[in-house]
Amino acid sequence: MEIEKESRAPETRQSENSRFRENEGHTITVAGLGLMGGSFAARLKELHYRVNGWNRTETVTEKALQRHVIDSADEQGISNSDIVILCMPAGCIVPFIQQHLSHFKKGAVLTDISGVKGHLCDEVRACLRPDMDFVMAHPMAGREGQGLDQSSPRIFDGCNYILVPDEKARPESVEKVERLIWQLGAAHVVTVTPAEHDRMIAYTSSLPHILAVSLMDSDSFVEESRYFVAGSFRDGTRVADINASLWARLFLENRENILAEIDNFQKSLDSLRRAVEDNNREQLTRLLEKAGERRRMLSHEKNTR
Amino acid sequence: MEIEKESRAPETRQSENSRFRENEGHTITVAGLGLMGGSFAARLKELHYRVNGWNRTETVTEKALQRHVIDSADEQGISNSDIVILCMPAGCIVPFIQQHLSHFKKGAVLTDISGVKGHLCDEVRACLRPDMDFVMAHPMAGREGQGLDQSSPRIFDGCNYILVPDEKARPESVEKVERLIWQLGAAHVVTVTPAEHDRMIAYTSSLPHILAVSLMDSDSFVEESRYFVAGSFRDGTRVADINASLWARLFLENRENILAEIDNFQKSLDSLRRAVEDNNREQLTRLLEKAGERRRMLSHEKNTR
Fold first, then answer.
1. What angle do CA B85, B91, B97 make, to 5 degrees?
2. Fewer CB within 10 Å: N-end or C-end of chain A?
3. How many whole angstroms separate alpha carbon A192 and alpha carbon A137?
4. Global pTM?
């Protein structure tokens, strides 16, 4: 696979006050104020942007206003936004755009955070005004739990951020989104096609969630298990506590890739099981060593958590 | 399963200076100065114990002395120790005891940290002096990596600690070891039989390590994967980087239990895979919700990380 990749030292918080003064007066709309949207809003405020918010459930919008996570929540705010970040489930994106179509600023660029890209871009383009643009992206950032209360501006610190522009995305729109991504605090930005994105993400994101869920769901779990767990179990199951309906949808939207990843994992687990069953200490040690080497590659990657 | 369980608020570091002055002048020997032994030594020093160390490889012993992780490394130190903590691979325990048998203090209590108990207790008792005692235990504490350099006194903060005394262990010996465990910083102490220990640990400790290793070893891993990972992958594979030969041995020593746990996990993974394959969103959501509920039970457990 050929990917375009760029890495940078994360923007330090210390230098922000001076560096990001230029953002003052610029409005960004964050649509969808859950865990991710709330985190975007909080981070954008740190970066001195004016943040306009939108949420389907109005009580959430009001909470965000009261807590000053957002500065406003109105059509005027949408009309002032050069960039609109769509932090809602993929299925809600087109209805949202249609509902607000006449209010978007001339030349506004939309970007999303959907975990599966599929044919999203075509669907969105079909309903955009010709002056607008859409640049798909996916921050590899998040945390356990769900909802505005769980949001944090720190989830972007040193993260990987995937840019997934289709061939119709205008270079200046891509550049605009990428500039924002670096400001958020990303350490690496890779640019891939929607198909590549969906394939990679099935392994690096969906599969760890599936294993965490399956480990918790095992018949072996009993109430007393909690007194026998250590860091390995806690870390391995942290993401078992997620927005169930959102993730069920994500898994099904990327069904083929996920089945392929489960099957690849299965081969790997089977090898290990066989080595245990055969009492093959040499083979078992080899499998453990291989995993260790690969894992160290991951953690020695500069600037990445 | 009926287990005896006790929980306490972890000993706070702030209160240590005064509370643990009583330990001054008391010597404890830590035998085996790897990640775990080094962590015990460092924590015991915080608790004002005098720490005597022993390690098969002398360069490690010297490093520990130079860094003041231990105060001494000699037979005199062993002779002064009421408690000896065996932090070596289980197979090295009997030779270590035989080598130093005449030097142990009268009435010395040995305790270990072995990940699998099996018939260890009988083997150890067969070579102990009659005045000595052995109380098996297993701290559910640790971290990735290996060796003295990776050790940290903080790994015990709020941990689970399993006490596995056999029926011959004297109550006053068990009490002595348990008192030390609370001082180390444990939040929960459970008491179980060796067989129960080995069965529980196969699920709560070995299995998460096996999944982490299998996830890293998947054929899907490519060099570029690192630019697509987020917290779920990082956390889920943290313990893939472990002492390969030590863990291969641990897995094989607990072979039957581990095979049973892999098979239970397999059933759980198969259910999830089937729900994805069948496009069964309802069932998938149910499985995710069940995992989330169980995971929240785990994290809401007081005093536990």
1. 50
2. N
3. 10
4. 0.86
| Interface-testing mutation among A190, A216, A267, with chain B (most B C-beta atoms within 10 A) | A216
HEC profile of chain A: CCCEEEECCCCCCCCHHHHHHHHCCCEEEEECCCHHHHHHHHHHHHCCCEEEEECCCHHHHHHHHHCCCCCECCHHHHHCEEEEEECCCHHHHHHHHHHHCCCCCCCCEEEECCCCCCCHHHHHHCCCCCCCEEECEEEECCCCCCCHHHCCHHHHCCCEEEECCCCCCCHHHHHHHHHHHHHHCCCEEEECCHHHHHHHHHHHHHHHHHHHHHHHHCCCCCHHHHHCCCHHHHHHHHHHCCCHHHHHHHHHHCHHHHHHHHHHHHHHHHHHHHHHHCCCHHHHHHHHHHHHHHHHHHHCCCCCC
Is some CB atom of chain A closer than 8 A to the CB atom of B142? yes
Q: Cβ of B205 and A232 within 8 Å?
A: yes
Residues recorded for chain A: 305
Handedness of CA A280, A285, A286, A290 (dihedral sign): positive
First to last CA, chain A: 24
Interface predicted TM-score (ipTM) over 0.95: no
Structure letter (DSSP) for residue B206 = I
The tens digit of pLDDT for each residue in A44-72 reads: 999 999 999 999 999 999 999 999 999 99
User: What is the SS3 assignment for B242?
Assistant: coil
Mention every residue, 6+ apart, whose C-beta is less than 8 A from residue A66: none
* pLDDT on residue B247: 94
Provide the chain A residues 22-81 that lie in CB contact (below 8 A) with chain B: none
Instruction: Give phi and psi for A273, each to the nearest 5.
Output: -60, -40
Contacts of B236 in chain A (CB under 8 A): 208, 211-212, 235-236, 239
Contact between residue B81 and residue B27 where contact means Cβ atoms under 8 Å apart: yes
Mean pLDDT within A272-285? 98
Compute how many other C-beta atoms are within 10 angstroms of the C-beta atom of residue B145: 17
Length of chain B: 305
Tell me the chain B residues in contact with residue A161 when contact means C-beta distances shorter than 8 Å: none
**pLDDT tens, residue by residue, A247-271:** 999 999 999 999 999 999 999 999 9
Strands A137-140 and A133-135, sheet pairing: unpaired
What are the residues facing B51 on neighbouring strands?
A: B28
